[in-house]
Each structure stands twice: as C-alpha cells, then as structure tokens.
Amino acid sequence: MTKSVPLSLPDISDKEIKLVSNVIKSGWLAHGEWNKKFEDSFSNFIGVKDSITMNSCTSALEIALKVNKIRGEVIIPSMTWCATANAVVNAGAKPVFCEVESKTRNVSAKTICPLISSKTEAIIVVHFGGQTCNMDEITKLAKRSKLLLIEDSAETLGGTWKKKKAGSFGIGCFSFFPTKNITTGEGGMFTCNDKSTLDKARALIGHGITNSTYDRERKKFKPWIRESTYAGHNFRMPNPLAALGFLQLKKIESMNKNRNKLANYYNKKLKKFEFITTPYCHKDVFHSYQMYTIEVDKRIRDGFVNYLRSNKIGASVHFFPPVHKQPFYKDKKNKVNLTVTDELSKRLVTLPMYSALKKVQIDYIINTINKFKY
Ligand SMILES: Cc1ncc(COP(=O)(O)O)c(C=O)c1O
Questions:
Q1: What is the dihedral of CA 104, 105, 107, 111, to 10 degrees?
Q2: Domains of the chain
Q3: What is the pTM for the complete model shown?
C-alpha cells in the first residue's frame, strides 16, 4: 500500500554521499577542484565552450544581464517562477511580461515580437517544466533584432530542441534546487560560448577577482595578490556541492529517460479522465519532465489539488499567481494581454514527478483520482 507520494524527491546515492563526505574531510570547503571538474563535464554535456558553477540559477540570470550591462527592457514570460523577474530587477533592468503559447506554455517568436521596442535589450526565454522553446524562431528573432538571448533552463537540464541542448542557444542558466533534474541542494550553472563573457562572469561571482583562491594558491608568484576589477558578488558554489553535482550529472541521461517513461505511463493512465488534459510535447523536443503538469477545469482545480494533498499525494500548482500578478509586480506590469497565462495559472496542476517514482505510486494516484467527485 502506497502511503504517500511526494511532489519530488532528489536521487542521491551512497557513492555521492561518500564523495561529499570525503571532500568535506579534505578541508577544502569553498570553491575548489570539484568546481572545475563539474564545469568541464557540464560543458561537454550541454555542448558549450565553458560553464561556471554558481550558488543558484537566479544568480546566473543576474550575472548574464550584468556582464552585458543590460539596464533597459528585458522580455520574459510571466508563466515562470518569480526568480526570472527578480534577477532582471536586481540587475537594474525592467522586466516586460510576455504571453505564452497555451499548448507548450512557452514564449514563441509570435508572442515576443510585439513587445520588441527601441528600449528592448534582451530576451529571457524559460523552457517551461522541461519543454524547450522553439529555438529556431527565437534565435532568428533575437539575432535580427540584435537582442541578447538568455535561456532560463532551470527546469530543462538535458532537454533539447532538434537534438541541440537547452542552454546552448544563448547564455544558459540552470538550477540545482532539490526539485530539479539534478541537485546540489542550492546551486546553479552558467553556460556560454563567448570567452570574454565567461571571464567577466567568473570575476563577478568572486568579488570581482579574476582568479579563484584555489587557482591562486597553486601559483608560484605572490599568490596573495588579489586584484578586484569589478564590484563583484559572492555567488560561488562550495567544493562539496560541486562534487555532488559532478556525480549527479553522470546519471542525468538515465534519470531523464525514467522521467519520460513515467510521463508516458501517466499519459496513458490519465487518458480516461475527461476533465484532465495531459501535457503536450512538441515533436522536435526531447522533454526533460522536470515537472509533469496537467490541466483541469479552473472551477474544480483548487478542490482537486486539495483532494490529492489530503490523500498524501504531493500535488501543487506551477505557477499561481503568475509573476505579473505577484504583489511586487502587479502595479508595474506592461499593458500586454496575458489571457493565456492567466487562464493556465488557474488550470494547471503539477503531479508528482522524479526519476525514482514508481509505476505503483502512479497507480495509487490514478486510483485516488478515480474516486474524485466534482
Ligand atoms: C524557471 C525558473 N527560473 C529560476 C529558478 C530559480 O532557481 P534557483 O532556486 O536555483 O535560483 C527556478 C527555480 O525554481 C525556476 O523554476
């Protein structure tokens, strides 16, 4: 008998715990040798020149904007976690909220285009829940309009558009929060192909200093000289967490494969419920299913989520309210029509999804839904 099914659960093996413990015992707890190992394997996996470990995806987004001195308007979806917008505000720029397509829940060239003005400087796309945006159209639009393209890939590690990985089209920003496809507890990654952007970003996350303590201590000549070229931050990832990320990344393909199998199983089992719409996946996308999100009638949505939760099923909603209706943003929003976003935020339900979820747990969820009265 299944007792409870959480919304998500990190998959951390004994081998990973042992490595983290050994790294802690080594005494090198701050940014260190495992950061470089994690970054190299990440770059290899995504297909980019280099990657930079950070303390969160939000920091990576803020750094992407600051490195490029973006202070004007930045087009972002409202159908996202508030971190996307907060990074824009904290970088000193202005978020302009963009509509999404109802099927993919992603922004598209069609929804972005009307918002481009002389004040626009960048676009941040969010690959919602693991589904990569249509990057053919968006890359072309950004290039034609001379706009910086940033991919908030917090939810899409391993996801692809036409076999090319999310995070390799523009500057990629990833999250390793425990609900994501791999975890380091808190953590993020910045991916890029441009050397000067990478160099500036590295300095900005470490007090504006162009090399790390670990690298400096290995230099023969005056390692105590630390030159600060920018008023930087401390957005670094600690060495033990980088070691965890390094081993987590080795499992990403098999974990994403499991997520896909589970999503297909959900799709098959949920088909019989007329009040449920299962998620759409574009034919050119490999979905990383960071979330498995269904839609139900807005009149019953909250009751349905409460019903599942009262049966110990960790259902939730991503995202309500959408960012343009969050207390901080509601008076600042642009005049654009966000009807699809508003509708989706009232209809979406996130069901449990994680790589170690069992089919028998999904069966329990289906049996519980069978007894739902509306
Ligand atoms: C789309 C999106 N962007 C940004 C973030 C923020 O990630 P982090 O917690 O690593 O800063 C999240 C995390 O929930 C997210 O889902």
A1: 100
A2: 14-251 (3.40.640.10), 253-370 (3.90.1150.10)
A3: 0.97
